[in-house]
Amino acid sequence: MSVVSVENASKVFGAGHTAVTAVGNVSLTIEAGDIMLIMGPSGSGKTTLLSMIGTLMSPTSGRILISGKDTAGLGPGQLSRLRLHEFGFVFQTFNLLSALTAEENVMLPLLTAGVPGKDARTKARAALEQLGLGQRLRNLPRDLSGGEKQRVAIARSLANDPRLILADEPTANLDGQTGQDVTLLLCETACRENRAVIIVSHDHRLRTAAKRVITIEDGHLSAEERGEHDRHCRMHAGAAPR
Ligand code: ADP
Ligand code: MG
After folding, report:
1. Nearest protein Cα to ligand 1, atom 15
2. What is the domain range of residue 122?
3. Which of 2, 42, 130, 191 could pair covalently with 29 via S-S, beta carbons 3.0-4.6 A apart?
Protein backbone atom coordinates (compact mmCIF):
# COMPACT_ATOMS: atom_id res chain seq x y z
CA MET A 1 0.00 0.00 0.00
CA SER A 2 1.27 3.47 -0.87
CA VAL A 3 2.42 5.65 2.00
CA VAL A 4 0.77 8.64 0.31
CA SER A 5 -1.74 8.82 -2.49
CA VAL A 6 -2.75 12.22 -3.80
CA GLU A 7 -5.78 11.90 -6.06
CA ASN A 8 -6.72 14.91 -8.18
CA ALA A 9 -6.11 17.29 -5.32
CA SER A 10 -6.67 21.02 -5.78
CA LYS A 11 -6.43 23.91 -3.39
CA VAL A 12 -8.12 27.20 -4.14
CA PHE A 13 -7.63 30.17 -1.84
CA GLY A 14 -10.31 32.84 -1.80
CA ALA A 15 -13.36 33.03 -4.06
CA GLY A 16 -14.70 34.84 -7.09
CA HIS A 17 -12.41 37.39 -8.74
CA THR A 18 -9.67 36.95 -6.18
CA ALA A 19 -9.59 33.13 -6.20
CA VAL A 20 -6.09 31.69 -6.51
CA THR A 21 -5.59 28.06 -7.51
CA ALA A 22 -2.42 27.25 -5.57
CA VAL A 23 -2.51 23.55 -6.49
CA GLY A 24 -4.51 22.28 -9.48
CA ASN A 25 -5.51 18.65 -9.98
CA VAL A 26 -2.37 17.03 -8.67
CA SER A 27 -2.07 13.25 -8.49
CA LEU A 28 0.92 11.31 -7.21
CA THR A 29 1.79 8.29 -5.10
CA ILE A 30 4.70 7.75 -2.78
CA GLU A 31 5.91 4.35 -1.63
CA ALA A 32 8.12 3.33 1.27
CA GLY A 33 11.75 4.10 0.40
CA ASP A 34 10.83 6.78 -2.16
CA ILE A 35 12.78 10.00 -1.91
CA MET A 36 10.93 12.60 -3.92
CA LEU A 37 12.04 16.12 -4.69
CA ILE A 38 9.29 18.49 -5.81
CA MET A 39 11.05 21.43 -7.37
CA GLY A 40 9.56 24.76 -8.33
CA PRO A 41 9.98 28.52 -8.08
CA SER A 42 8.55 30.66 -5.32
CA GLY A 43 4.75 30.77 -5.45
CA SER A 44 4.40 27.57 -7.50
CA GLY A 45 2.36 25.76 -4.82
CA LYS A 46 5.05 23.70 -3.04
CA THR A 47 4.15 24.58 0.53
CA THR A 48 0.43 24.23 -0.20
CA LEU A 49 0.92 20.75 -1.66
CA LEU A 50 3.19 19.67 1.20
CA SER A 51 0.73 21.06 3.76
CA MET A 52 -2.09 19.03 2.23
CA ILE A 53 0.00 15.84 2.25
CA GLY A 54 1.02 16.58 5.86
CA THR A 55 -2.69 16.98 6.74
CA LEU A 56 -2.10 20.54 7.93
CA MET A 57 -4.54 21.79 5.29
CA SER A 58 -7.40 20.02 3.52
CA PRO A 59 -7.79 20.07 -0.26
CA THR A 60 -10.62 22.07 -1.84
CA SER A 61 -11.30 19.04 -4.03
CA GLY A 62 -9.73 15.62 -4.51
CA ARG A 63 -8.37 13.26 -1.89
CA ILE A 64 -5.25 12.67 0.20
CA LEU A 65 -4.82 9.08 1.35
CA ILE A 66 -2.24 8.13 3.97
CA SER A 67 -1.50 4.40 4.07
CA GLY A 68 -4.70 3.89 2.11
CA LYS A 69 -6.88 5.89 4.46
CA ASP A 70 -8.74 8.97 3.22
CA THR A 71 -7.71 11.80 5.55
CA ALA A 72 -11.03 13.58 4.93
CA GLY A 73 -12.64 10.99 7.18
CA LEU A 74 -10.37 11.76 10.15
CA GLY A 75 -11.15 14.19 12.97
CA PRO A 76 -8.70 16.74 14.40
CA GLY A 77 -7.53 14.38 17.17
CA GLN A 78 -6.91 11.53 14.73
CA LEU A 79 -5.04 13.87 12.37
CA SER A 80 -2.75 15.17 15.10
CA ARG A 81 -2.01 11.60 16.21
CA LEU A 82 -1.25 10.69 12.60
CA ARG A 83 1.20 13.60 12.34
CA LEU A 84 2.81 12.81 15.68
CA HIS A 85 3.29 9.09 15.02
CA GLU A 86 3.65 8.72 11.26
CA PHE A 87 5.20 11.97 10.02
CA GLY A 88 8.41 13.86 10.60
CA PHE A 89 8.54 17.54 9.61
CA VAL A 90 11.62 19.56 8.65
CA PHE A 91 11.33 23.30 8.05
CA GLN A 92 13.34 26.03 6.42
CA THR A 93 13.85 27.83 9.72
CA PHE A 94 14.76 24.70 11.75
CA ASN A 95 12.11 25.57 14.40
CA LEU A 96 14.21 24.51 17.39
CA LEU A 97 13.26 25.74 20.85
CA SER A 98 16.04 28.09 21.92
CA ALA A 99 15.88 27.25 25.65
CA LEU A 100 16.27 23.50 25.07
CA THR A 101 19.44 21.58 24.30
CA ALA A 102 19.81 19.59 21.09
CA GLU A 103 18.91 16.42 22.96
CA GLU A 104 15.86 17.99 24.61
CA ASN A 105 14.64 19.38 21.29
CA VAL A 106 14.69 15.86 19.83
CA MET A 107 13.08 14.38 22.95
CA LEU A 108 10.15 16.78 22.95
CA PRO A 109 7.92 15.20 20.29
CA LEU A 110 8.69 11.76 21.72
CA LEU A 111 7.53 12.86 25.17
CA THR A 112 4.45 14.41 23.56
CA ALA A 113 3.76 11.05 21.91
CA GLY A 114 3.86 9.37 25.34
CA VAL A 115 7.32 7.79 25.16
CA PRO A 116 8.73 7.48 28.73
CA GLY A 117 11.55 9.93 29.53
CA LYS A 118 14.36 7.40 29.67
CA ASP A 119 13.41 5.83 26.35
CA ALA A 120 12.94 9.26 24.78
CA ARG A 121 16.47 10.19 25.83
CA THR A 122 17.92 6.96 24.43
CA LYS A 123 16.10 7.44 21.12
CA ALA A 124 17.05 11.11 20.90
CA ARG A 125 20.72 10.29 21.47
CA ALA A 126 20.65 7.52 18.88
CA ALA A 127 19.06 9.87 16.31
CA LEU A 128 21.57 12.65 17.03
CA GLU A 129 24.52 10.25 16.90
CA GLN A 130 23.29 8.91 13.58
CA LEU A 131 23.49 12.45 12.23
CA GLY A 132 26.99 13.00 13.57
CA LEU A 133 25.92 15.13 16.54
CA GLY A 134 26.97 12.84 19.38
CA GLN A 135 29.26 15.60 20.68
CA ARG A 136 26.51 18.24 20.58
CA LEU A 137 23.83 16.71 22.80
CA ARG A 138 24.03 19.37 25.51
CA ASN A 139 24.43 22.37 23.23
CA LEU A 140 21.76 25.03 22.92
CA PRO A 141 20.71 25.99 19.38
CA ARG A 142 22.57 29.32 19.65
CA ASP A 143 25.84 27.41 20.02
CA LEU A 144 25.27 25.35 16.88
CA SER A 145 26.02 26.24 13.26
CA GLY A 146 23.17 26.41 10.73
CA GLY A 147 24.02 22.98 9.35
CA GLU A 148 24.12 21.51 12.86
CA LYS A 149 20.76 23.08 13.71
CA GLN A 150 19.20 21.54 10.65
CA ARG A 151 20.73 18.18 11.54
CA VAL A 152 19.12 18.45 14.99
CA ALA A 153 15.82 19.21 13.28
CA ILE A 154 16.30 16.16 11.03
CA ALA A 155 17.12 14.00 14.07
CA ARG A 156 13.91 15.28 15.65
CA SER A 157 11.93 14.39 12.53
CA LEU A 158 13.37 10.84 12.53
CA ALA A 159 13.21 10.06 16.23
CA ASN A 160 9.62 8.81 16.26
CA ASP A 161 10.30 6.31 13.43
CA PRO A 162 8.04 8.13 10.95
CA ARG A 163 6.83 6.44 7.81
CA LEU A 164 7.05 9.76 5.95
CA ILE A 165 9.34 12.78 6.26
CA LEU A 166 8.14 16.09 4.86
CA ALA A 167 10.72 18.82 4.32
CA ASP A 168 9.83 22.35 3.17
CA GLU A 169 12.85 24.22 1.73
CA PRO A 170 15.23 22.53 4.19
CA THR A 171 18.29 24.23 2.68
CA ALA A 172 16.97 27.78 2.32
CA ASN A 173 18.91 29.04 5.36
CA LEU A 174 22.11 27.11 4.69
CA ASP A 175 25.00 27.78 2.35
CA GLY A 176 25.00 25.70 -0.83
CA GLN A 177 27.43 22.96 0.17
CA THR A 178 26.08 22.59 3.71
CA GLY A 179 22.55 22.41 2.34
CA GLN A 180 23.48 19.64 -0.05
CA ASP A 181 25.41 17.70 2.61
CA VAL A 182 22.59 17.92 5.15
CA THR A 183 19.97 16.89 2.60
CA LEU A 184 22.02 13.93 1.45
CA LEU A 185 22.43 12.87 5.08
CA LEU A 186 18.65 13.01 5.54
CA CYS A 187 18.10 11.00 2.38
CA GLU A 188 20.73 8.39 3.24
CA THR A 189 19.23 7.88 6.68
CA ALA A 190 15.74 7.57 5.22
CA CYS A 191 17.03 5.21 2.53
CA ARG A 192 18.65 2.90 5.06
CA GLU A 193 15.43 2.75 7.08
CA ASN A 194 13.10 2.53 4.07
CA ARG A 195 11.21 5.67 5.02
CA ALA A 196 9.50 7.85 2.43
CA VAL A 197 10.68 11.43 1.99
CA ILE A 198 9.15 14.40 0.21
CA ILE A 199 11.31 17.48 -0.12
CA VAL A 200 9.95 20.64 -1.72
CA SER A 201 12.52 23.21 -2.77
CA HIS A 202 13.52 25.70 -5.42
CA ASP A 203 17.09 24.32 -5.13
CA HIS A 204 17.77 22.13 -8.18
CA ARG A 205 21.04 20.88 -6.66
CA LEU A 206 19.01 18.67 -4.35
CA ARG A 207 18.29 16.32 -7.27
CA THR A 208 21.59 14.65 -6.34
CA ALA A 209 19.96 13.40 -3.12
CA ALA A 210 16.55 12.40 -4.55
CA LYS A 211 15.39 9.23 -6.26
CA ARG A 212 12.41 10.88 -7.95
CA VAL A 213 12.25 14.47 -9.18
CA ILE A 214 9.08 16.28 -10.20
CA THR A 215 8.73 19.92 -11.19
CA ILE A 216 5.79 22.04 -10.07
CA GLU A 217 4.76 25.18 -11.89
CA ASP A 218 1.63 27.23 -11.21
CA GLY A 219 0.27 24.39 -9.10
CA HIS A 220 0.69 21.72 -11.76
CA LEU A 221 3.17 18.85 -11.81
CA SER A 222 5.28 18.05 -14.85
CA ALA A 223 6.60 14.66 -15.91
CA GLU A 224 8.84 12.86 -13.48
CA GLU A 225 12.60 12.46 -13.86
CA ARG A 226 15.07 10.22 -12.12
CA GLY A 227 17.21 11.77 -9.41
CA GLU A 228 20.86 10.94 -8.79
CA HIS A 229 20.38 9.43 -5.34
CA ASP A 230 21.80 6.00 -6.14
CA ARG A 231 25.07 7.49 -7.32
CA HIS A 232 25.59 9.59 -4.20
CA CYS A 233 24.01 7.59 -1.37
CA ARG A 234 26.60 5.85 0.80
CA MET A 235 23.95 3.29 1.73
CA HIS A 236 24.10 1.98 -1.84
CA ALA A 237 26.82 -0.35 -2.99
CA GLY A 238 28.66 1.20 -5.88
CA ALA A 239 28.23 4.79 -4.72
CA ALA A 240 31.26 6.92 -5.48
CA PRO A 241 33.56 7.09 -2.44
CA ARG A 242 33.77 10.57 -0.92
P1 ADP B 1 5.56 28.04 -2.71
O2 ADP B 1 5.68 27.29 -1.43
O3 ADP B 1 5.93 27.24 -3.92
O4 ADP B 1 6.32 29.33 -2.67
P5 ADP B 1 2.79 28.42 -1.91
O6 ADP B 1 2.19 27.07 -1.84
O7 ADP B 1 3.16 29.06 -0.64
O8 ADP B 1 4.02 28.41 -2.94
O9 ADP B 1 1.76 29.40 -2.67
C10 ADP B 1 1.17 29.09 -3.91
C11 ADP B 1 0.21 30.19 -4.31
O12 ADP B 1 -0.89 30.23 -3.40
C13 ADP B 1 0.82 31.59 -4.29
O14 ADP B 1 0.24 32.33 -5.34
C15 ADP B 1 0.39 32.13 -2.95
O16 ADP B 1 0.30 33.53 -2.98
C17 ADP B 1 -0.97 31.49 -2.77
N18 ADP B 1 -1.30 31.27 -1.34
C19 ADP B 1 -0.62 30.45 -0.49
N20 ADP B 1 -1.19 30.45 0.72
C21 ADP B 1 -2.26 31.27 0.65
C22 ADP B 1 -3.27 31.70 1.58
N23 ADP B 1 -3.30 31.24 2.83
N24 ADP B 1 -4.20 32.57 1.14
C25 ADP B 1 -4.19 33.03 -0.14
N26 ADP B 1 -3.28 32.67 -1.06
C27 ADP B 1 -2.32 31.81 -0.68
MG1 MG C 1 6.86 27.61 0.26
Report:
1. 43
2. 4-237
3. 2
Per the CB < 8 A criterion, the answer to whether 152 and 139 are in contact is no
> Which atom of ligand 1 approaches the CA of 45 most closely?
6
18-21: long-range contacts, CB 8 A cutoff, minimum separation 24: 21/219
Question: How close is the Cα of 46 to the center of ligand 1, in Å?
Answer: 8
Q: Which atom of ligand 1 is nearest to the CA of 44?
A: 3
Reported as a single tens digit per residue, the pLDDT across 170-202 is 999 999 999 999 999 999 999 999 999 999 999
Q: How many domains does the chain have?
A: 1
Examine the pLDDT at 237 and tell me if it is beyond 70: no
Per DSSP, the three-state class of 52 is: helix
Whether 144 is in the pocket of ligand 1, judged by its Cβ within 6 Å, is no
Rounded Cα–Cα distance for residues 191 and 161 (Å)? 13
DSSP one-letter code for 46: H
Please check whether residue 242 lies inside any domain of the structure: no
In this structure, the residue with its CA closest to atom 11 of ligand 1 is 22
Concatenate the DSSP letters of all residues of 102-152 into one string: HHHHHHHHHHHTT--HHHHHHHHHHHHHHTT-TT-TT--GGGS-HHHHHHH
**Residue 85 belongs to what H/E stretch?**
helix 76-86
58 part of a folded domain: yes
Residues 68 and 142: their CA atoms lie apart, in Å, by 41
